[in-house]
Amino acid sequence: MNLPHTEADSAKGSYDKTVAEWVYKFLVESGEPAKPVLLSKLGGRIAKEFGKPVRLLLGRGITLSQILSEQLEGKVGFTGTQGTLAVFLDETATSRRDEPLPRLDKVLWTAFFRPIKEGDRRFLRLKPEVYFWDGPEDSAAPSPGWEEIEPHRIPPEELALPQRNRAAYNAIEEWFKLRGYVLQDHVKAENSPQARSNYSPELNLEVAPLVSNTMTSKGIDALRHLVLSIPEKDRKGYSMPLDLLAALLL
Question: What top-level branch of life does the organism fall under (predicted)?
């Protein structure tokens, strides 16, 4: 299939629907529609089918994942991240598409929604308060009770917001199940049936502080990062002058 093409046409999204429909048909006819297919692999097939690279078909700044999440909403799901992002037919997506997401602890949500800087690792603890910490690639968990959030669990930024919210929530659910934690313990109290009916997933985009709401001081944040950078078994060997503590906390 070769289509007449100009870059101006692409900018208007002329082929968005056509490409999405072709991908949907490809997945249906693959024999394993629920098996994820790498978007990088699909890109090559699309280029061969349409006679143009995906970036020219869709226009500058538009990604294949964006088009599929928008045009095939309720029909497909995504897994992986960045170079390993894959798409598959999701028979349950339609029934879950309009189901409101529970409102979770803001820090917990941000830990699974905010992208991890390349070369960093992210660790999360749930008690005594939810807190996450990003450190260099060679970092170890700060102390017992901290566990890593693997980068592949963070949904790609280019996904349409409803799919990105759903992917983040699914990642949290899976992470909790694998570790035997109870997610319900971190659902906000106002998450009543009435509150859920008026809830928009976009509200989960609120960026939470890296510390709890009762500890928002920059000095406390700096002090906490300093303590977390020292292995728990080695902390007895350190001391800090009171005037330095005062400068951080007052």
Answer: Bacteria
